[in-house]
Amino acid sequence: xxxxxxxxxxxxxxxxxxxxxxxxxxxxxxxxxxxxxxxxxxxxxxxxxxxxxxxxxxxxxxxxxxxxxxxxxxxxxxxxxxxxxxxxxxxxxxxxxxxxxxxxxxxxxxxxxxxxxxxxxxxxxxxxxxxxxxxxxxxxxxxxxxxxxxxxxxxxxxxxxxxxxxxxxxxxxxxxxxxxxxxxxxxxxxxxxxxxxxxxxxxxxxxxxxxxxxxxxxxxxxxxxxxxxxxxxxxxxxxxxxxxxxxxxxxxxxxxxxxxxxxxxxxxxxxxxxxxxxxxxxxxxxxxxxxxxxxxxxxxxxxxxxxxxxxxx
Length: 313
Ligand SMILES: [Zn+2]
Known about the structure:
By secondary structure, the chain is of the alpha+beta class. 20% of the residues lie in helices and 37% in strands. The chain is globular and about 50 Å long.
C-alpha cells in the first residue's frame, strides 16, 4: 500500500458521550435543487418525539417513509428510500441529511420535502450541519438505543468490501476506516480512519463534497441524471486535474466524502451502531448490503441502551 495517504484521527480530548436521545429544538427549512433531477425543492427539518427516529415526509404526496435500511430501493447513484408497496413514494439522496443528523447526534426528526429528491446544497453536509446548529439540539428524556455488533459481518464485490466488527472495549459508538483507489491521479489512493463523534464529524467529514469523474458526467446527463450537478455542488476530476476553480477543501476530500456517505448509510440501521466499520472502495450499494447482512444475522448484534462513557483520547 505504499504511496497511499493514510490519516488516522484519534478521538479528541476526553468528553462524555451523550446517553440520551436528542432532537432539534425548533424547525428550520431551506431551498435547494436536486442533484439528479435538477428540480427546485424545499426541505424542512422538524423536531420529533423520542423513539420516532428519522422519517421523511413527501408533503406533495402526503406520505411518510421511515429512514430505514430495509426501505432502501436504489443505491446506484445515491441512497433512495421508497415505500415497498408504492415505489412512486420515494425520497432520493438521503445520505447527506442522514449523515448530518447522525454526525451531530440527532436521533429524532421529521424531514419534510416537497419532491422526490433532497436538495444537494453544496454537495457536502456543511449546510445541513449549519441548519441543525441554527435549530439547536435538545436532549430528550429517553435513553438512546444502541445496536452493538458482536460478530464480524462482511460483504464484498470484487476487491471492494465493507465490514462491521465488534468495537474495542475502550471504544464507544462507531470507529470508521475507509480506503479508496481511483485511476484518476487527482484522487489516487487515499485512506482515513476516525472515531465518529459530533466533533470529528464536523471537523473532518462534514465539509467534504460529492465528487464525479468528468468522463462520467456526459453519460449521466444522457441518462437524465446529474441535471442539477455543477462545480458549485460537486468536485469534478479529469485524470490529474480538479476542474473546480477553488480546488479541494482538503487534500483527501474524496475519502472523507466516502466516509460521510458511509455515516449516512449506516444511520439507516435503526439505532446507534457500536462497531468498527472497515471498508475499501465501498459505496451506497455495499453499505446497504452490509446493514442487510448484519440485521439478517441475529447472532451478530444485540440491542442495548447507551450508558454515559468517558471517551479518552
Ligand atoms: Zn455523498
